[in-house]
Automatic annotation (TrEMBL), chain C:
Ranges of residues in domain MrpA C-terminal/MbhD: 607-672
Domain MrpA C-terminal/MbhE, residue spans: 681-761
A cellular component annotation (GO) from this entry: plasma membrane
Chain segments annotated as transmembrane: 6-22, 29-48, 78-96, 108-125, 131-150, 162-186, 206-231, 243-263, 269-287, 299-317, 323-344, 365-387, 407-427, 448-471, 491-518, 566-585, 597-618, 625-645, 651-671, 683-701, 743-764
Name this protein carries in UniProt: Na(+)/H(+) antiporter subunit A
Residues annotated as domain NADH:quinone oxidoreductase/Mrp antiporter transmembrane: 127-410
Keyword presence, Cell membrane: yes
Keywords of the record: Antiport, Cell membrane, Ion transport, Membrane, Transmembrane, Transmembrane helix, Transport
Cell location: Cell membrane; Membrane
Pfam family, one: Proton_antipo_N
TrEMBL record, chain E:
Compartments, record wording: Cell membrane
Pfam families for the chain: MnhB
Keywords: Cell membrane, Membrane, Transmembrane, Transmembrane helix
Protein's organism: Brumimicrobium oceani
InterPro entries the record matches: CPA3_antiporter_subunitB, MnhB
Na+/H+ antiporter MnhB subunit-related protein domain residues: 5-127
Name the UniProt record assigns to this protein: Na+/H+ antiporter subunit B
Topology within the bilayer: Multi-pass membrane protein
Residue intervals passing through the bilayer: 12-30, 36-56, 68-88, 108-133
Major subcellular location class: membrane
Cellular component aspect of the GO annotation: plasma membrane
Keyword Membrane in annotation: yes
Family: Belongs to the CPA3 antiporters (TC 2.A.63) subunit B family.
Automatic annotation (TrEMBL), chain F:
Protein name: Na+/H+ antiporter subunit C
Predominant place of localization: membrane
UniProt keyword annotation of Magnesium present: no
Topological type in the membrane: Multi-pass membrane protein
Organism from which the protein derives: Brumimicrobium oceani
Family per similarity comment: Belongs to the CPA3 antiporters (TC 2.A.63) subunit C family.
Membrane spanning residue stretches: 6-21, 28-50, 75-95
Keywords: Cell membrane, Membrane, Transmembrane, Transmembrane helix
Automatic annotation (TrEMBL), chain G:
Designated name of the protein: Na+/H+ antiporter subunit G
InterPro entries: PhaG_MnhG_YufB (IPR005133)
Cross-referenced NCBIfam families: CPA3_mnhG_phaG (TIGR01300), PRK12674.1-2 (NF009314)
Keywords carried by this UniProt record: Membrane, Transmembrane, Transmembrane helix
Superkingdom field: Bacteria
Organism (species): Brumimicrobium oceani
Transmembrane parts of this sequence: 6-25, 37-57, 63-90
Length: 158, 503, 769, 91, 137, 117, 128
């Protein structure tokens, strides 16, 4: 119940931002609206308590942006220069993340950062298959992610 | 309240259809609702007809936006007459469908779409806006697609593919024409167009655009050489659907031609000749097509084409008398063609086949039914004084006035070939002995029907035959209506004044 | 007034009544049917006195006044002649049939058709409105169709009926064409009013057309060469039908029509010459044919055609005496021909054959019938003192005084008549004379009605011959002046010894000679069949066959089942429309400066659009084509964005996406995309598509030069907010100004959804199909 | 140079050029996934173009189109992938 | 499609998109948007959900056959079109407006109801079509 | 640009026509879709091209002022697009059904409807 | 000053987009192309939208910009994921210099089940 309520508030806020009119009436309207929407779709929802961790989220965002720009420049160089320095490959990355949300977040973040691309997750959720542009060493690559994104995401979610 | 009457023919069927959707899984209730809706439709159509007859062309501006800014709905005598006939046919078909349509079809929306289609027809007749006409056409097309395909067997799907493609193309052509008209005039209101178009300097362009419309409508009405979808598809669906199509769909194309070529683009000399040639060829090809067919429904399909030639021919002569003839023919054709296909449905139930060679002995085995069927058949031929005869008086006469003896000869040809064809049909299905065929085990024959089942098939036919007989023996009533229509169509200021509220 | 209308319509009501009585009940009261013609005969006879005094009766009820079509009947002397024949012979035939078809399972139906036919004939001859005349004319055709195919399970009957209907139907339409034109010329549909301006047709600019139509009508109905062939075929009908149709009614309708409108064509020599020639050919041809027939009814058929030829021939001579001769001959022919037909019928009924080579010596059993046949044969041959003799006298008088070439005309008449004598004897005498062949077997005595009915007719032939004044008073005295404006010659059996009597004698002797020396046989008949290939009937059937085959060919060529062909034809037509326009109306203004003003973005969009089109068209993978379509839609969106149509861009984009999804969901089931069409086809289609596109583009450019005042747009711009309270003008149009479009549009969508649902989910069980 | 001019004469052409490059990939393929990726990118660039155009014309409402593009675009990618997998499974 | 990532995201997106669709519907009278495009967005949300989670799952979320939205939407549209005839005697589809401004929605009028009808019909139609096709493989 | 777009319209029509004349049902439908695009572009052109000025009344305005894109064709196109979407989706499903029943998407094999028998 | 900032941000965004476009064209296989484009383009669009938000400086527009960006961040990787996965199924070839392929043989081609390689340890379940 609590989670649903929070989600409801959150959606109401989104509504307020969407419409761009910040006042009580609009919020109430947004609240009612999102309540209806949630009611409509609630049956299959697995509730998560993830929206309370906003600060971590923000810090993660900055980390992510940093990584994004950094790696983008790296790839840019490779794209623009005539010769390719790539050593691509698909790597099975053993997951620590367990829940749907954790895995999804991780996978998305990995994809969004340059040079890597989440291809699929095994059915038993143990392995994330990642296509990477620069695979000097498989172990090193796995460690990089383990200590970088995965750790931070788990920090936020758990 | 009364000025709203104009849109009620549309609203009735719309509401009926939506109501039917709510009773999706209840075929029995659907049947009652449909018949009820059909009955109310007739009453409203009759009231509207009475109103237009007594006080002239009616119009209403939807959304209360003065013309030409909103969409105008205009009920002139042509429109209301067609609506009345449409509703009568629809009512008969609603009854006919109770047995002709199996429950599973009804459960998949047959009745709702049926009423949407009737609504579409009414809308097309009433609208005074060119683009709105397009939209109505689309309602008609999509509903007919659905009616044509549901429960589709092999042949039905094949027919539907052709029907679909050619009708889609015709829609696109029509829309192209509308775009061009808008580009050249900046207006879509038909009444306003009737005033703008003559002012345009580049009349060559206007004539070309009008031909675009002609081709668009020509496909729908089934003129040569645009009719191919018709014989390819009309024999494929259940009889009730074919009857609806045969009676009304092609006539919408003719209606549109009549409207557009009198109100918006009065026929120029060149176009007149083009229409005449096409009318002649339509009669010819329809006639010879029907002559060689071996399936009764296909015979009727080609006869539809053949007889479209009469109406286009009437329009092409472009005198008031000729228009009257065309309109008279249209009235006759709506009723009779629908009856024929309903009859075809009964014959299919009797013989288990629609092939002529599998038929026979109707006259000996079903004398009363034969008498009933003889009336639409002979009316089709134009055996006087049955309905098909009356329009010919005007059409023949107009051919002389216009000095078009060739047109007259084509009318004679078409009449004669129809006579021969129907005589052939009569011989093969009514006169000759029935062939001994094995009874199909999973087929319910007419003779096995209960009384009420038989009635559901025959009563609607009786209703329409009644209308035919009324037309035949009280042709004066129809003639007066047609004469008024002719006058209204040829003098566009009636229409213009009604739309713009000028007294 | 109304009484007359009821009388005319009584036959139709009566037939319905019979239908209502039902077959079973009717079998027990067949006499009931005969009440109708008898009472009608009495009714019409009641007018005879007044009409003999020159009175004319008019009956008028308006029907479709806006077309000028009214129930307008007029009983004058000509009409009376026919009504009496119709009802008189009708009474006899009705009575005769009660025995002839006794116990026939479809007897009721027979009387239904026969009554309708009689009513139609009565209406035809009494109509004073030319359209009602046509109406009844058509009704005779259609009811005779049913009578001819009365033995509906026999294929030859049905075939003959169709041939008869086709020929007479053609004539009917010609009559309608004639009627409408005549009405236009004279400004009235009333036949009697038309007569107010006689000769009006003769000199009219459309006189040729008028003549073509009236000839077509009359010749087809009255079985003139080359339309005669439906008549022998019509012998497939039961004999009473043949009797009725071919002696007194159906075929006489054409003669009636010609007689009626003769005054209008007065002094038009083409009119009369045509009649003369056609009549002459017909009578000679038909009379000659009788030599080769072995079936009694076949002989009678050709002698009927011959007689009709004589009538047309007489009208064609166009003199007062020839018209009078024609009128008298109508009566003569009706009486003896009806009699002979009935005699034949009884023979057939009793002996079971009509083969003249098989018949003989029947007088022993059928004495009264033999007498009737004998008298009828005499009248047919023009022996005195029968009315036939007077008829033949008049004919010779007419030919001898006929305008063009009396000798030729008379020779032809004599030749024909000789053969008619022969034919009469063959039917009326031959079966009864000589020895009875063994093959015939036991012959029972016929029912009283079966010999008495022909006897009445035969007796009348004799009676009128003895008292020709009756015929004169009843008919010729008034009819001839009506048609020619001159008094009719006096009718008498003996005009003194003159050339005419000589010719009569020659005719009779010639006929008797042939009768004795020429024995009809099957061999001769089949010998004649060798020439059948050139007979009008064979030619017509060949033509019909050819027409059928051409029809089949054309239908299959155009409607060949190939959708692409259908599409192609439509598109070619449309291409022509634009193409011709572009060529005859070149108003194209290409402004190159506009092209220079393009910026890079626009060039990119256009290039992408162009290339994606090409890609979509030519890619070999179905999915790539759909992706290409996606790009195309995307470029459209960009155009909408750049040119101020955000709503459009949004909608187009979302719809495109949905379409792609739909395609994708459907397509993975389909087989590989094959390159199916051959090179020629591709080239042809390419040319058509390209020229279409080019012409269309040029036309569009032309339209763009029009700069219409868009009052509507201006109105929307000014009032969208103030009156409709919206700022997105496009949306305001959609939900308000033109909200009804949207209303219908969602209906279209709903129907489509239902359709999709039904199309995929509905699976009919076998018994539901 | 005003920002509008800068966007009009420098940025929009550059974006158009990018579009063109992506489009070339679309045409080259070689596989369907390549085309789908190109289509996806094409739409992403479209969003940028619309955003820039919205500044140029000073019509913020164009942003709504961008929003719709962003929302819907990936659905067709999903659909195409769905197709590829289904099709593979059918074979 | 069996994809955990897609499943997670689509589930999250569903309410967001529906919300967004309502937003687009309501503002249509003032800015680009309206019932049609709003309905499409909502439909797309469900379609996406169906792609990721399978049809059965989406049906559960929807709780009713999408086809029922069609007559409901049509009824709303028809009623709003008929309202002027019944209420004020004006012709069909005449706009009726509530005098005062309502918060968020701005002016409330029959047009908005009409657009809502359109919205529901579009959702119903799109989902009926797509679901039917996916079901009948 | 107007003239080029007019030519483009012609090309769209030509492409649509060419595709409709192929033997594959899928191509036929794609052709119809492209033709639909052509018509839309035509209607759009017929309103006259105006760059970057959508018919939206300014937030503080009461009416459209100055130059603006003609909203009428836009509304027409919107209606037309939606309608053709309905028809197209039906058509696409028809392909599916046709393939299921007829086992082919080759139009030329669907030639039985007009046999005389 | 503000204008300059906006111009810089937008230019950067444009450059990233151009980069993505070039990358898409140049990269030797599908996976690499996706790798390049997903991020570069997303970043590019994000920057341009940011510029737009700065240009208007209105709440309603900023919120919308944020919405779009969030949405792109959510969806772009999914697009890449689904299409990449599908491409692997279909057998879109990898660049010849690809070093390792851990995914090889892990997919069940019939059911599209994906193994992790660790299954044996738990419960070996036979597929039929
Ligand atoms: Na990279
Ligand atoms: Na809208």
């Amino acid at each position: 119940m609590k989670v649903q309520f929070l989600l409801n508030i959150l959606l109401a806020i989104v509504w307020v931002f969407l419409t761009g009119t910040i006042n009580a009436v609009n919020f109430t309207f947004g609240f009612i609206l999102s309540f209806l929407v949630l009611w409509l779709i609630s049956s299959s929802q697995e509730k998560q308590k993830y929206f309370i961790i906003i600060p971590r989220l923000i810090s993660f965002t900055f980390y992510f942006l940093y990584e994004l720009i950094k790696a983008n420049l790296q790839v840019a160089a490779d794209v623009i220069t005539p010769k390719f320095y790539m050593e691509p490959g698909i790597i099975a990355y053993p997951l620590n993340a367990k829940s749907d949300l954790e895995i999804t977040l991780l996978a998305n973040v990995i994809t969004l950062t340059p040079g890597t691309l989440s291809l699929d997750i095994s059915d038993d959720r143990k392995v994330l298959y990642i296509h990477a542009m620069y695979v000097h060493d498989k172990e090193e690559f796995i460690d990089g992610i383990k200590n970088g994104f995965e750790k931070r995401i788990l920090n936020i979610v758990r | 309240m009364s000025e709203h009457l104009i849109i009620y023919p549309i609203i009735v069927h719309l509401i009926t259809a939506v109501l039917l959707l709510f009773f999706w899984m209840k075929p029995k209730i659907q049947r009652y609702i449909s018949i009820l809706g059909g009955g109310v439709g007739i009453v409203i159509a009759a009231l509207l007809f009475q109103r237009v007859w007594s006080s002239g062309i009616q119009s209403i501006q939807l959304g209360n936006w003065e013309a030409p800014f909103g969409i105008s709905m205009v009920a002139d005598t042509l429109a209301v007459s067609l609506i009345l006939l449409t509703n009568i046919v629809a009512f008969a078909l609603a009854i006919y469908s109770t047995e002709n349509m199996v429950s599973s079809r009804v459960k998949f929306g047959y009745y709702a779409i049926f009423h949407f289609l009737i609504m579409g027809l009414s809308g097309a007749f009433l609208t005074g806006d060119l683009f709105n006409l397009y939209v109505w056409f689309e309602v008609i097309i999509i509903s007919s697609f659905v009616l044509l395909t549901i429960g589709g067997r092999k042949i039905q799907i094949e027919g539907a593919v052709k029907y679909f493609t050619l009708n889609m193309i015709s829609s696109i052509i029509f829309l192209t024409g509308i775009a061009m008209v808008y580009g050249a005039t900046g207006s879509l209101n038909m009444a306003e167009l009737s005033r703008i178009i003559p002012e345009i300097e580049n009349q060559g362009l206007i004539q070309t655009i009008s031909l675009v419309f002609f081709i668009g409508f020509g496909v729908k009405s089934g003129v040569f050489p645009l009719y191919f979808w018709l014989p390819a598809s009309y024999h494929t669906p259940p009889a009730a659907v074919s009857a609806l199509f045969a009676g009304l769909l092609t006539k919408v194309g003719i209606y549109a031609m009549l409207r557009v070529f009198t109100l918006i683009f009065p026929l120029g000399e060149v176009n007149q000749i083009i229409l005449m040639v096409i009318a002649g060829l339509t009669m010819f090809f329809g006639g010879i097509g029907a002559l060689v067919q071996k399936d009764i429904l296909r015979v009727f399909s080609y006869l539809i084409i053949c007889h479209i030639g009469f109406m286009v021919g009437g329009l092409s002569l472009f005198t008031e008398v000729a228009i009257v003839g065309a309109v008279m023919y249209m009235f006759h054709d709506i009723i009779v063609k629908a009856t024929l296909y309903m009859m075809g449905g009964v014959m299919f139930r009797i013989f288990g086949s629609t092939k002529l060679r599998n038929m026979g002995g109707l006259m000996d085995n079903y004398p009363r039914l034969s008498l009933l069927f003889a009336i639409p058949l002979f009316a089709l031929v134009g055996i006087p004084p049955l309905s098909g005869f009356w329009p010919k008086v005007s059409l023949f006469s107009a051919s002389y006035t216009a000095g078009e003896i060739a047109m007259l000869v084509m009318f004679i040809f078409a009449s004669l070939i129809t006579l021969v064809i129907i005589a052939k049909v009569w011989n093969k299905s009514f006169s000759k002995d029935a062939p001994k065929l094995e009874r199909k085990s999973s087929f319910k024959y007419f003779e096995d029907f209960s009384f009420s089942e038989k009635a559901a098939y025959v009563v609607p036919i009786i209703i329409l035959v009644g209308v035919t007989l009324y037309y035949s023996f009280f042709a004066e009533h129809f003639q007066l209506v047609a004469a008024r229509i002719g006058e209204e169509l040829m003098n566009t200021e009636h229409y213009y004044n009604a739309v713009f509220g000028i007294k | 007034m109304t009484v007359f209308l009821i009388v005319i319509l009584s036959s139709f009501v009566f037939s319905l009544l019979l239908f209502g009585i039902g077959q079973k009940t009717f079998q027990r009261m067949t006499w009931f049917a005969a009440l109708l013609p008898i009472s009608l005969f009495i009714y019409f006879s009641s007018f005879a006195r007044s009409i003999m005094d020159g009175e004319v009766f008019n009956f008028f009820t308006s029907w479709v006044p806006s077309l000028g079509i009214n129930l307008d009947f007029r009983l004058d002397n000509l009409a009376l002649l026919f009504t009496l024949l119709i009802t008189g012979v009708g009474s006899i035939v009705f009575l005769y049939t009660t025995q002839y078809l006794k116990g026939h399972p479809k007897l009721m139906r027979f009387y239904v058709f026969l009554s309708i036919f009689m009513g139609a004939m009565l209406g035809l001859v009494t109509s004073n409105n030319i359209i009602t005349l046509f109406i009844f004319w058509e009704l005779t055709s259609i009811s005779s169709f049913f009578l001819i195919s009365f033995n509906n399970t026999e294929s030859p009957s049905r075939k003959s009926a169709i041939i008869a209907l086709t020929i007479t139907g053609l004539g009917g339409l010609a009559l309608l064409a004639f009627a409408v034109l005549a009405a236009q010329i004279t400004g009235t549909l009333s036949i009697s009013e038309m007569l107010q301006s006689p000769e009006v047709f003769a000199n009219h600019q459309y006189s040729v057309i008028l003549m073509v139509f009236i000839f077509l009508a009359a010749f087809t109905k009255s079985a003139q060469f080359p339309f005669h062939f439906w008549l022998p075929g019509a012998m497939k009908a039961p004999t009473p039908v043949s009797t009725y149709l071919h002696s007194a009614t159906m075929v006489k309708a054409g003669i009636y029509l010609l007689l009626r409108f003769t005054p209008h064509f007065q002094n038009n020599s083409y009119f009369f010459t045509t009649l003369l020639i056609v009549g002459a050919i017909t009578m000679l041809y038909a009379a000659f044919q009788t030599l080769f027939k072995t079936d009694l009814k076949g002989i009678l058929a050709y002698s009927t055609i011959g007689a009709l030829g004589i009538m047309v021939f007489l009208i064609g001579i166009g003199t007062t005496s020839s018209i009078t001769a024609a009128i008298v001959f109508i009566v003569v022919h009706a009486l003896y021909k009806a009699s002979l037909f009935l005699v034949t019928g009884t023979i057939d009924h009793q002996a079971g054959t009509r083969d003249v080579t098989q018949l003989g010596g029947l007088r022993k059993v059928l004495m009264p019938l033999a007498i009737a046949g004998f008298i009828a044969a005499l009248s047919s041959g023009g022996f005195p003192p029968t009315i036939g003799f007077i008829g033949k006298d008049l004919i010779y008088e007419a030919t001898l005084n006929g305008g063009l070439n009396p000798t030729l005309l008379t020779t032809m008449a004599v030749l024909t008549n000789i053969l008619m004598v022969f034919a009469g004897l063959l039917v009326g005498v031959k079966p009864f004379s000589g020895k009875k062949p063994e093959a015939l077997g036991e012959i029972k005595k016929p029912h009283f009605l079966l010999w008495f009915m022909p006897m009445i007719l035969a007796a009348l032939s004799l009676l009128f011959g003895l008292f020709p004044a009756m015929v004169e008073a009843l008919f010729t005295k008034n009819i001839t002046p009506l048609l020619t404006g001159e008094a009719s010659p006096h009718l008498a059996i003996w005009h003194g010894f003159n050339l005419i009597i000589l010719l009569s004698a020659i005719t009779i002797l010639g006929g008797i000679a042939i009768y004795f020396f020429w024995k009809p046989s099957h061999k001769k008949e089949s010998g004649m069949l060798k020439f059948d290939a050139f007979a009008p009937k064979s030619l017509a059937l060949k033509f019909a066959d050819l027409f059928q085959r051409i029809s089949y060919f054309l239908t299959r060529t155009f409607q060949n089942g190939y959708l692409r062909r259908y599409v192609l034809i439509i598109l070619v037509l449309l291409t022509l429309v634009f193409g011709i326009h572009v060529f005859i109306n070149p108003r194209i203004f290409l402004e190159l400066k506009e092209i220079k003003a393009l910026n890079w973005n626009e060039i990119v969009i256009l290039a992408m659009m162009l290339v994606s089109i090409i890609f979509t068209v030519f890619t070999k993978s179905r999915l790539s084509a759909i992706a290409g379509m996606g790009v195309l839609g995307y470029t459209m969106c960009l155009i909408f964005v750049f040119y101020g149509a955000p709503d459009l861009a949004m909608t187009q984009f979302s719809i495109d996406t949905l379409t792609v999804i739909l395609f994708v969901l459907v397509l993975y089931r389909l087989p590989k995309y094959l390159k199916l069409s051959n090179r020629t086809n591709r080239l042809r289609d390419g040319i058509i598509a390209t020229s279409f596109g080019t012409f269309l583009a040029l036309t569009i450019i032309e339209i763009m030069n029009e700069n219409p005042i868009k009052s509507t747009t201006q109105y929307y711009a000014e009032n969208a907010y103030t009156l409709a309270k919206g700022k997105n003008v496009v949306n305001v149009i959609l939900v308000d100004f033109r909200g009804f479009d949207t209303m219908i549009e969602i209906v279209v969508l709903s129907i489509a959804a239902i359709g999709v649902f039904a199309l995929l989910k509905l699976h009919l069980k076998k018994h539901e199909k | 140079m005003s920002i509008e001019d800068y966007l009009t004469y420098i940025i929009l052409p550059l974006l158009s050029t990018s579009t063109l490059l992506v489009f070339i990939r679309f045409l080259m393929g070689p596989t369907l996934p390549d085309r789908v990726v190109a289509l996806d990118l094409l739409i992403t660039i479209g969003i940028s173009i619309i955003a820039v155009y919205s500044i140029v014309t000073k019509r913020p409402s164009f942003l709504d189109i961008a929003m719709i593009f962003a929302l819907i675009a990936f659905l067709s990618t999903v659909a195409f992938s769905y197709y590829l997998e289904k099709r593979k499974r059918n074979e | 499609m069996k994809s955990l990532i897609l499943k997670t995201v689509s589930t999250t997106l569903l309410p967001l998109l529906i919300l967004f669709s309502v937003f687009v519907l309501l503002r249509g009278h003032y800015l680009p948007g309206g019932g049609f495009i709003g309905g499409l967005i909502a439909a797309i949300a469900f379609i996406l959900h169906a792609f990721a989670n399978g049809l059965t799952q989406t049906r559960k979320v929807l709780r009713m056959h999408p086809g029922f939205l069609i007559p409901i939407g049509l009824s709303i549209a028809i009623l709003s079109a008929l309202a002027p005839i019944i209420l004020t005697g004006d012709p069909l589809m005449t706009g009726l407006w509530y005098e005062k401004d309502i918060a968020i929605l701005g002016k409330i009028g029959s047009a908005l109801f009409f657009d809502t009808g359109v919205y529901l019909v579009v959702i119903g139609v799109c989902l009926t079509i797509i679901f039917t096709i996916s079901e009948s493989v | 640009m107007e003239i080029l777009l007019a030519i483009m319209t012609g090309i769209l029509y030509a492409a649509g026509i060419y595709l409709i004349l192929r033997r594959s049902l899928v191509k036929l439908i794609i052709g119809i879709v492209i033709l639909g695009n052509g018509v839309n572009l035509l209607i759009f052109l017929m309103g006259g091209l105006v760059k970057g000025r959508p018919p939206l009344i300014a937030e503080d305005g009461k009416m459209l002022e100055g130059i603006f894109a003609d909203p009428v064709p836009q509304a027409l196109i919107l209606t037309a697009i939606v309608i053709s979407f309905g028809l197209q989706s039906f058509a696409i499903v028809l392909i599916k059904r046709a393939y299921k029943v007829l086992k082919t998407d080759d139009i030329d094999t669907m030639n039985k409807t007009d046999d005389i028998k | 000053m503000n204008d300059i900032l906006i111009m810089i941000i937008i230019s950067l965004g444009t450059l990233f987009i151009l980069l993505a476009a070039i990358g898409l064209l140049r990269m030797p296989d599908l996976y690499l192309r996706m790798s390049v484009t997903t991020k570069a383009a997303t970043l590019g669009v994000g920057l341009i939208l940011l510029g737009l938000a700065l240009y208007y400086m209105e709440t309603s527009i900023t919120t919308r910009v944020i919405a779009i960006i969030v949405f792109l961040l959510l969806t772009a990787p999914i697009s890449a994921h689904v299409i990449g996965r599908a491409a692997y199924f279909v057998g879109v070839p990898m660049w010849k210099k690809t070093k390792i392929d851990d995914l090889k043989g892990m997919y069940n081609t019939k059911t599209h089940d994906l193994m992790s390689g660790f299954e044996e340890e738990e419960k070996p379940e036979a597929e039929d």
